[in-house]
Specification:
alpha+beta; single chain; 305 residues; three-stranded mixed sheet; elongated
Amino acid sequence: MAYIDYYKILGVDKSATQDDIKKAYRKLARKLHPDLNPDDKEAERKFKELNEANEVLSNPENRSKYDKYGEHWKHGEEYEKAQQQQRQYQQQNYGGGGFSGADFGEGEDFSDFFQSMFGGETGGGFGRSSRGRASGKFKGQDIQAELHLKLKDAATTHPQTFEINGKKVRITIPAGVYDGQQIKLKGHGNPGVNGGPNGDLYITFNIPVDPDFERIGDDLKTKVAIDLYTAVLGGEVKVNTLDGSVNLKVKPETQNGITVRLKGKGFPVYKKEGEHGDLFVTYEVKLPVNLTEKQKELFEQLKNS
């Protein structure tokens, strides 16, 4: 696996705060979103890399592993487990002695380990290695998977079927999952070695920026255009929500940028059936164009009245 500098992709330093990472992601996601760059393969590739970088760096646990293991961060847990099991083996068979230097041999580094465990002839298992070490019962390798969802799909409880290692896995996704959220399916990872338990399957949800709604926790924000006459005199405007459109009354003399709240029209609260956040609607007053001479005269009269 080639090393990818996730910090560089997001345009932040390694000392960046989680808030810095979130802001950088949102800024670039708006710029590279496929809806704004149709048929642009390069933008699509960069958008995919951006989501991958955000998946890792926005999660403090994953970020810590990435900082330590680089491109091998997903297998960092296996490395730590194998180290611990090797130490136990040494203590049981050699009374804590018999080996010197690093746990995996003098001069062996992370890359050597990951190559032998996940990319070499051992086939990803934890049995006897090429160095002839004794085998034991080991848990199978965990699997990391990413599931892409549109915002509107994440707002509904629905089944999803996908394939992992040639096996179909069916899960029910609860309404309200958020971008970067990770769930674990115990025993759905790779088979154990020498009778050991199966690994686990970790699924991370990837929810790209939506062109219509901005999600903030369980609340949503959107914008709606109203004409000058409706803003001045009042009226109605149709507003899209996640579950259809509603007619919203506009008060007379509504100013540009005014925000109103639609209670309970936001995002479903995760695993709290029937509870929703709110939808905040910001009015954007559009000025008329291509005025007739008569209309201009009327505006002059208003100006001078």
